[in-house]
Structures are given as C-alpha cells and as structure tokens.
Design brief:
Structural class: mainly alpha
Largest sheet: none
Shape: globular
Number of strands: 0
Helix content: 55-70%
Radius of gyration: 22 Å
Oligomer: single chain
Strand content: under 5%
C-alpha cells in the first residue's frame, strides 16, 4: 500500500469528471429518445414552469426521477477537490438543475414526453441527495485516502487510465438489464406470458443460427472486456483475479436484477440459449490472450469488441428483436427508456473502449510497474 507521502503526491484523478460526463450523456439519451417526431407546442401553450401544476405521479415515477439524478450529483460533488463543502454541494445541485431544466424544456417539443415542474423538482432533489453523499465521502479523509490509493496502486495513471476506468464502471452498470443476454448487445425477444399457465411459450430465438450468434456475441464481448481490464492494470500478476472479480460482479448484478425485475414465470428463462456456451468459450480464449504481448492484446481486444457488435448482423431477427416488456414486473413507460438506454450504451461501448485502448498503446512504458 502506498505511503502517506505517495498519497499526497498522487496526481489528480479525472475519474469523477469522466463519470459525470458519461452519466450526463446517458440521462440526455434516456430523456429524449427516440429523438424523432419533434413538434412545436401548440400556440398558447404556456412554458412548463408557468403551467398549472397538477401532480400525476406514481410513487414509482417519483423514485425513478430522484434516483436518476443522484449519481450525477455524486460525481459532480467529487470534482472540485479543493473547494469548500458548500461550493461542492452547490455545483452538484446546479448541474442537476441545469440539465433537468434543459431536458424538460426540450421535452415540450416531443409529443411523447410531458415536461413537468414535478420532474424538475424530483431531479434536483436527486442531485442534492447524491451531492450530499459525495460530499460526505470527500470529507472523510480515510475514505478519500483508500479510494485514491486503490486507484493509483492497481490501475494505470493519467487521463486515459481514468477514462478506461469510467468506461468499465458504465459497462458494469448497464449489465443490470436482464433483457439483454449476458455480455451481449442484442435483446432477448419479447416474452409473452400465458397468465393461465404461467409458463413461457417456445422462444423464436431457439433456432440454431440465433443460438450461435448469441454465443459468438457473448464470447467476443467477454474476451474484449476481459482484455480491456487487463490492459488497464499496472501489473500482469493481478490480471486473473481482477477479471474474475469483474465478471463475477457482472453476473451478480445481472442475476439480482433478473430476480427483482422479472416476473416469476420469466425469471428462470432470462438467460437465453447459447449464452453459457459463449461465456465459457470467451473465458478460455481470455486465459490464453492475457499472456500475449500487449500490442497484440490491444488489436485482439478491439477486434473482439467490434465483432460483438457486428455478429448479430448475420441474424437480423435477433438484432432487431423487440425490447422485452411483458416479462418485466415494472412500469412499461419507464421500462422503454431503460431498455433503450442500456441497449444503446452496449452498442456504443465497444467503439469507445477500442479508441481508449489505442490511446493507451501510444504511451511509453505502458503497463510497467512504476
């Protein structure tokens, strides 16, 4: 463990900045998708702040709106390292309020969305709550020291290393959607439950071609993500344990989400055919790939990640499957946004991760112990 002097000399981390940026982009996407059918409000429509407010929330909507902005407030509160506590909290609230105000204003031009003062207040409350948690963490010298020591002891330093860690956090977060097969980028086709029998009909994805594509997608994605993590570590001897921790965390997140979010009749079927085989093949390939030279690992990781996006093109029925709805024990309105966001992130993630890897490859003494 680094000494206190090493902690004081540790370079400033931009990890909170990248996480705040990426999470902010995710909020924008979820709030405005599908980015179509824009229409000016009818003449005489008051601005949403001036409109008569009649709360039409459900408790679920209120919780979602608060929780959606809490991580943004948390990340923003960690950004100004040497600023007073009040300034940190004000920055978190201001960021949440500004983003929510802009998106609520934009939603006035989307007939499918409803701009609401209530949503704005809930979002600000979420940013405030997240900012208070971030402030408490930042003011705890022990917690701050442990976080900084962990970051700089295990992972590559610098802005590119921070960006890589932020991408890993985002990747792990979107694994919470059980409608997307494990380590894949394609939806499991919509599940139609028979309320009388409480069973599932045969899935259209059970044909051999679809199974092979799902297996290949999972294998490519696991190989690419595993190599991406391996290339961010300072020393190779930590690779095996770190990959196992990441994959185990992803499996745990996905399993818990499936148990909580899916209806009982759908829970045992959330893991589509081909996924276990693909994960097993990807794990075997990863065991060999982590011992290859680093330039080869970069190329192999980029190829595997991009292949995980391109493989489903061979079976359009799988690639363009409907977002699962009926299998979820959840409000469908919020679920559409959730499904669209997680699917979009997993489609764009391999491109962003590949660009980050090639940026790392240009660094001298990359990956060597410092």
């Amino acid at each position: 463990m680094p000494s206190p002097s090493a902690h004081r000399a540790a370079p400033r981390s931009h990890l909170p900045h990248y996480l705040a940026l990426l999470y902010g982009l995710a909020i924008v996407y979820a709030s405005l998708q599908p980015f179509a059918q824009w229409m000016a409000p009818t003449p005489g429509t008051p601005f949403f702040l001036a409109a008569a407010w009649s709360p039409r929330w459900t408790r679920f909507d209120l919780i979602v709106n608060v929780l959606a902005y809490a991580p943004l407030g948390f990340f923003v509160a960690l950004m100004p390292r040497r600023h007073p506590a009040l300034a940190r909290l004000a920055a978190a609230v201001a960021a949440g309020a500004a983003l929510s105000f802009a998106l609520e204003t934009a939603q006035m031009y989307l007939p499918s969305r409803d701009a609401s003062v209530g949503d704005l207040l809930a979002n600000v409350a979420g940013a405030l709550g997240g900012g208070m948690i971030g402030l408490a963490l930042a003011r705890s010298k022990r917690a701050a020291r442990l976080a900084v020591d962990f970051r700089h002891h295990w992972f590559l330093p610098g802005k590119v290393g921070d960006l890589g860690l932020a991408l890993l956090v985002i990747w792990l977060a979107v694994q919470v959607n059980p409608g997307i097969p494990l380590f894949a980028t394609t939806f499991e086709p919509d599940i139609q439950l028979d309320p009388a029998l409480a069973t599932l009909p045969p899935s259209p994805s059970d044909d051999l071609a679809a199974i092979l594509v799902v297996a290949a997608t999972s294998a490519f994605h696991l190989l690419g993500v595993g190599l991406f993590l391996a290339l961010l570590l300072r020393q190779r001897r930590y690779v095996g344990g770190a990959v196992l921790v990441l994959i185990g965390a992803a499996v745990l997140v996905k399993g818990i989400a499936a148990a909580v979010l899916l209806k009982p009749a759908a829970w045992s079927h959330w893991l589509s055919p081909g996924v276990p085989d693909g994960v097993a093949v990807g794990a075997l390939l990863l065991l060999v790939a982590i011992w290859l030279p680093r330039p080869v690992q970069v190329a192999l990781a980029a190829i595997a990640l991009l292949a995980s996006v391109l493989a489903p093109l061979f079976t359009p029925d799988v690639l363009f499957a409907d977002a699962p709805l009926s299998g979820f024990n959840w409000s469908y309105g919020q679920l559409l946004n959730f499904n669209g966001l997680t699917h979009a992130v997993l489609l764009m993630w391999p491109v962003a991760a590949s660009a980050c890897l090639f940026a790392l490859a240009g660094r001298p003494d990359w990956g060597e112990p410092g």
